[in-house]
UniProtKB/TrEMBL annotation:
<feature type="region of interest" description="Disordered">
    <location>
        <begin position="177"/>
        <end position="199"/>
    </location>
</feature>
<dbReference type="InterPro" id="IPR011974">
    <property type="entry name" value="PaaY"/>
</dbReference>
<dbReference type="Pfam" id="PF00132">
    <property type="entry name" value="Hexapep"/>
</dbReference>
<dbReference type="InterPro" id="IPR050484">
    <property type="entry name" value="Transf_Hexapept/Carb_Anhydrase"/>
</dbReference>
<dbReference type="InterPro" id="IPR001451">
    <property type="entry name" value="Hexapep"/>
</dbReference>
<dbReference type="InterPro" id="IPR011004">
    <property type="entry name" value="Trimer_LpxA-like_sf"/>
</dbReference>
<protein>
    <submittedName>
        <fullName>Phenylacetic acid degradation protein</fullName>
    </submittedName>
</protein>
Length: 199
């Protein structure tokens, strides 16, 4: 994978984490146990530190960065959807950031909260645990239900299983030129369709 040290600081990836070969890690980056980093994600630790704690995931094309003297942190079981941008913020334990959302400097997303897809969270934003955060600029819309928190946790567990699946079987290959007879379908275990919480 593209992995670069800067001024002698080298990224650290726990052996149980999975980082896709097309992801880019630069400098002061720490990827913890059982984390997943998807294709074309960019974790740029050339100013502030980038930290992914145990069981968190950063999906395809996400960007993490921070200004000097600030860190961008995803706490345990944090879940970052495709294309999100995290800049100098903290995503607390078991929180989710939706696809293409932007979280700015000094913002803290409280535990078990959900930031809706495409939300823009202003610098310095804070909220109470279990908040549903929507809009541009984003605001707390309401508290999450127990079912919505469970939905988030099940989605994060799927990505933790994906980490294991990638270690076990993901490998680069040449594409086929036609569909083979009896083509298998992927079975990710107990996967069920995931539906986002209602606004």
């Amino acid at each position: 994978m593209p992995c670069y040290k800067i001024e002698g600081v080298v990224p650290v990836i726990h052996p149980t984490a999975y980082v896709h070969p097309t992801a880019v890690l630069i400098g002061d980056v720490e990827v913890g146990p059982n984390c997943y980093v998807g294709p074309h994600a960019c974790l740029r630790g050339d100013f502030g530190r980038i930290v992914l704690k145990e069981g968190s995931n950063v999906q395809d094309t996400c960007v993490m960065h921070a200004f000097p003297g600030m860190d961008a942190i995803i706490e345990k079981d944090g879940h970052i959807g495709h294309g999100a941008v995290l800049h100098g913020c903290v995503i607390e334990e078991d929180a989710l950031v939706g696809m293409n959302a932007v979280i700015m400097d000094g913002a803290r997303i409280a535990p078990r909260s959900i930031v809706a897809a495409t939300a823009f969270v202003k610098a310095g934003f804070t909220c109470e645990p279990e908040s549903l955060i929507i809009g541009s600029p984003a605001k707390v819309h309401r508290q999450l239900s127990a079912d919505e928190i469970k939905w988030k946790q099940e989605g994060t567990e799927e990505y933790q299983r994906l980490t294991e699946r990638c270690h076990a079987s993901l490998e680069e290959c040449e594409p086929l030129t036609e569909i083979e007879p009896n083509r298998p379908q992927l079975d990710a275990g107990n996967s069920q369709p995931l539906h986002a919480p209602k606004k």
